[in-house]
Write a structure and sequence with these properties.
Structural class: alpha/beta
Oligomer: single chain
Strand content: 15-25%
Largest sheet: 8 strands, parallel
Shape: elongated
CATH architecture of the domain at 677-834: Sandwich
């Protein structure tokens, strides 16, 4: 009673004359712990034996805590029913001859009780009863009042996630007796540890033992850190001080020996290496008994995949409402901002981006300050992140290898919001293996991919940029420059150096019309410059020739460039992407014999003074050519070498009749026959006449035709849909699912999702999709389609709201049929043609030209192409447009 624990004994607390058995059962069920004192005469009482059976039943079904106390008895005699217990049970069998089943239950209960961990007067206290009682009280106190972990002062939004976790942990279900491993992952500061501790506090009472090992990564880095963690794990559960383990392998053996039968709850927090888990929880087989639960928190999702956990739970950022509440508790000590602070509080919450760590740090730092001080503090945070936040977020960066760090910093400084395939092309030529690096960054929650677009939490971005900023006090001695103030300072004062690898000058909207004067020699010292971007500079006065640009350039993105042409001595041999939208350029280059073998993307959209195209013989590996809105373009050189270009955009360059003629000229080229997938977006009101099947409405059915010539096969399908715009005043974008249904074989599948963009006031669109039937095709049993099979194709908008603005007017399908040997010859042609290009160039091969005359007032045509992200499209008002080769 001194310790605050209410107790009763069956011989004192239950009044005489009542139904003792019923009252006792209720008392046992209402208790959390039973202490059973086994003496020499215990088994002589049938009443005591019935109590024992009931207590052990509660132990197995209700997580009831059972503590046996062996008072002057040997647990071995109890287990085997030998010694005095043998005589006692013999008498019981004689006494209960007609109820031997009851005696067998007593024997089984006696054996089970002897196997349970408890207290032995001789071995635990050397016969001293006072010390014996103290040890028992200590254990009961621990069992009844396990130490709860401190979670957070203001647990905003945690309860919902705790309940989700409890559901996944399957407590109180048929799988309760199974061992289950749960992984939690997310970026640093997102609240993984807080959530894990809250779950631990909520469920730890239901286990025979529990241990929460915090900061596993940090502790394991210390000398003998893993051994310390092993010792803590054993002590937390056994409550026995383990003598020095000595080495990790011995610790593994001890954990397996002592805990393999126990139902335990283990939390391993902030794990970043499998070795840490192998030392504490598994060596292929988990160390703990049935019913155990192991919760692992980590920043690395892939670690959980390699470990093979039962469930992975991603801890997401807080929503805006919870973020504002948590911030307000720390800033104002109440769940909402003070009246005059609402607007600036929302700005602070937006900066934190749903990261609990940032909300707590910001709120605490701003508490009690004036609005003016709030504004200056927020501005300081935006330019230089808080050290505490920086330290927590920087842990993930420090775990990366050198190449992955470089990719991370490039993305943080230059490529947020950019299509991932576009970035792959650039960074691949930098020798960075971007596919592997970006995959690692995604797994470590440092980068996200949204609709094929690279994105990053603002604080992660700021952390990366701060790492670059710390390289030097002088901007010209840093590896990457992105702040327009720093860039202008470096360029105007010729402060650049060989350290600079990337530079982006992007003026704010309100500054884009100001005149910027620069000298081309400002780039002369940046001999290792790989990435160059100049955007939002509409009035750039450039003095001198830009021949000083680095030979290492892989990416030039220079919008509104004032140059009329690129100088002939400019080194572009390593260039992968040349993007010069809205520039004054008349001719891209006058290179006569140079081959730009690495150039893959050439974007000259809306270069309204461009009259002459580059000679495409000089760019044998060009994959994307975008000439949208170049309405003065009349001279296209070497167009027959566009056979290998997957994307060609000529919208707004030609009148409709000229467009048809030019497209026919392109389509007559022997393109590589079957590109796996190709999309085409056009203005149009009807399916082309060359389609083999077309129909009004959003679905069409047809039968596979008989092919009279056995050498002729179906190589691909072309799907067409005319989208009718209902509301010219409403813009809309979304996806159209192409559903392929082989009714004969009973297979139905969405084979593709077309991105569709309807700008305000736009005309109807014709959307074409070409799909090959090769090994990578998504068409079910596409290569096995046979004569007479019924096929249905339908086009369905993903969002029902879309039907208010757009509808399907007409759809169609066309079969691409070809002889087997023709396909092979085209592939061979493709390989040979590619190899011969450079030889042709050096041998003065005549260049095919296409010259056209057209009105100069031809309107610009802007269409979304489904390749770049919608946001990027809207920002730059341009598109990428693919032209399809001859289909029938």
């Amino acid at each position: 009673m001194r310790t605050g624990i209410w107790t009763f004994c069956d011989d004192n607390e239950l009044p005489r004359g009542e139904n003792i058995s019923k009252e006792l059962i209720n008392a046992i069920h209402g208790s959390r712990t039973s202490l059973v004192i086994f003496s020499k005469d215990y088994a002589s009482s049938s009443w005591c034996l019935d109590e024992l059976v009931q207590i052990l039943h509660c132990k197995s079904t209700m997580n009831h805590i059972f503590i046996p106390i062996f008072y002057h008895v040997n647990p071995s005699d109890m287990r085997k029913q030998t010694g005095t217990f043998a005589e006692t049970f013999d008498r019981l069998e004689g006494r209960f001859q007609e109820d031997m089943e009851r005696v067998q239950r007593w024997r089984a209960a006696f054996t089970e009780a002897a196997d349970c961990s408890g207290f032995d007067l001789q071995s635990d206290a050397n016969g001293f009863e006072a010390r014996f009682i103290e040890k028992i009280v200590e254990q009961v106190l621990y069992k009844l009042n396990p130490i709860c972990l401190d979670v957070v002062e203001h647990p905003v939004g945690i309860d919902f996630h705790v309940e989700e976790m409890k559901t996944l942990l399957q407590l109180g279900t048929s799988t309760t007796t199974k061992l289950l491993i749960m992984g939690m992952y997310g970026m640093g500061g997102i609240g993984k540890t807080t959530l894990a501790k809250a779950v631990y506090n909520n469920i730890c009472n239901g286990f025979e033992g529990s241990s929460c090992l915090l900061n596993v990564r940090e502790v394991s880095e210390k000398s003998n850190g893993l051994i310390q963690l092993q010792e803590q794990l054993l002590f937390d559960i056994l409550k026995v001080k383990i003598l020095s383990i000595g080495n990790v392998d011995k610790g593994i053996s001890l954990i397996k020996q002592r805990l393999h039968r126990k139902s335990v709850l283990i939390v391993l927090d902030d794990v970043d290496q499998l070795d840490q888990i192998y030392a504490l929880a598994t060596d292929g087989e988990w160390f703990f008994g049935p019913g155990s639960r192991v919760i692992i928190t980590t920043r690395d999702e892939h670690l959980l995949v390699k470990l093979g956990v039962n469930y992975s739970y991603k801890v997401e950022k807080m929503n805006h409402s919870d973020s504002l509440q948590l911030f307000s508790w720390h800033a104002f000590n109440m769940p909402h901002p003070e009246d005059d602070f609402w607007e600036i509080s929302i700005a602070a919450v937006d900066y934190a981006g749903g990261l609990p760590l940032a909300l707590e740090v910001l709120g605490s730092d701003l508490r009690g300050r004036s609005i003016t001080k709030w504004k200056t503090t927020l501005e300081k945070f935006r330019k230089s992140p808080d050290a505490q936040i920086q330290e927590i977020l920087g842990i993930s960066f420090k775990s990366l290898d050198h190449t992955t760090r470089e990719v991370f910093l490039d993305i943080a400084c230059f490529f947020i919001g950019v299509n991932i395939e576009y970035v792959f092309k650039i960074l691949e030529e930098c020798g960075f293996f971007p596919d592997i690096a970006i995959n690692i960054l995604v797994q470590k929650s440092l980068v996200k991919i949204d609709n094929t677009n690279l994105s990053m939490h603002d604080l992660i971005r700021d952390m990366g940029r701060e790492i670059v900023r710390q390289e030097s006090r002088h901007p010209g001695m840093r590896s990457r420059l992105w702040s327009h103030e720093d860039v202008l300072k470096v360029l105007k004062n010729h402060m650049g150096s060989e350290v600079v690898e990337g530079l982006s000058l992007n003026l704010p909207i309100h500054d884009q019309d100001q005149v910027i004067s620069l000298e081309s020699e400002a780039f002369a010292n940046m001999k290792n410059l790989r990435l160059l971007q100049i955007k939002g500079v509409k009035n750039l006065k450039l003095q001198g020739c830009i021949e000083h640009l680095s030979k290492e350039l892989r990416w030039i993105c220079w919008h509104s460039c004032p140059l009329r042409f690129l100088p002939p001595r400019l080194h572009l041999e390593n260039l992968v992407v040349l993007d010069m939208q809205y520039s004054k350029i008349k001719q891209v280059w006058t290179l006569e014999n140079n081959v730009l073998s690495k150039l893959k993307v050439l974007n000259l959209s809306f270069c309204e003074d461009l009259t002459k195209s580059p000679n495409f013989l000089q760019v044998p590996n060009l994959e994307e050519l975008i000439l949208e809105g170049c309405y003065k373009l009349v001279d296209i050189q070497g167009f027959e070498n566009l056979a290998f270009t997957k994307v060609v955009s000529l919208e707004g360059c030609l009148e409709q009749e000229e467009e048809i003629d030019f497209v026919k000229s392109l389509l007559e080229l022997q393109w590589p026959f079957m590109i796996e997938r190709r999309q085409i977006y056009l203005y149009g009101d009807e399916i082309p006449n060359w389609f083999s099947h077309k129909r009004t409405g959003s679905s069409i059915s047809f039968h596979i035709p008989s092919l009279s010539d056995q050498d002729r096969v179906i190589k691909g399908l072309v799907f067409g849909v005319v989208c009718r715009n209902k509301d010219s005043l409403q813009a809309w974008h979304g996806e159209i699912s192409v559903v392929f249904h082989n009714k004969t074989k009973g297979h139905r599948q969405v084979i593709h999702r077309l991105f569709y963009y309807k700008p305000i006031g736009s005309l109807n669109h014709l959307v074409l999709l070409q799909v090959g039937l090769g090994g990578g095709s998504k068409i079910p049993y596409g290569q096995e389609m046979t004569n007479g099979e019924e096929i249905e194709v339908s086009f369905e908008f993903e969002c029902s709201q879309a039907l208010e603005y757009v509808g399907v007017k007409e759809c169609g399908i066309h079969l691409i049929i070809q002889r087997e040997e023709e396909a092979g010859s085209m592939v061979m042609y493709s390989e040979k043609k590619k190899k011969m290009m450079e030889d042709d160039l050096m041998q003065d091969t005549p260049v095919t030209k296409l010259t056209r005359h057209r009105p100069h007032n031809w309107p610009k045509v802007w269409k979304y192409d489904g390749i770049v992200p919608f946001v990027s499209y809207i920002e730059r008002n341009t598109s990428t447009f693919a032209l399809l080769h001859s289909l029938g």
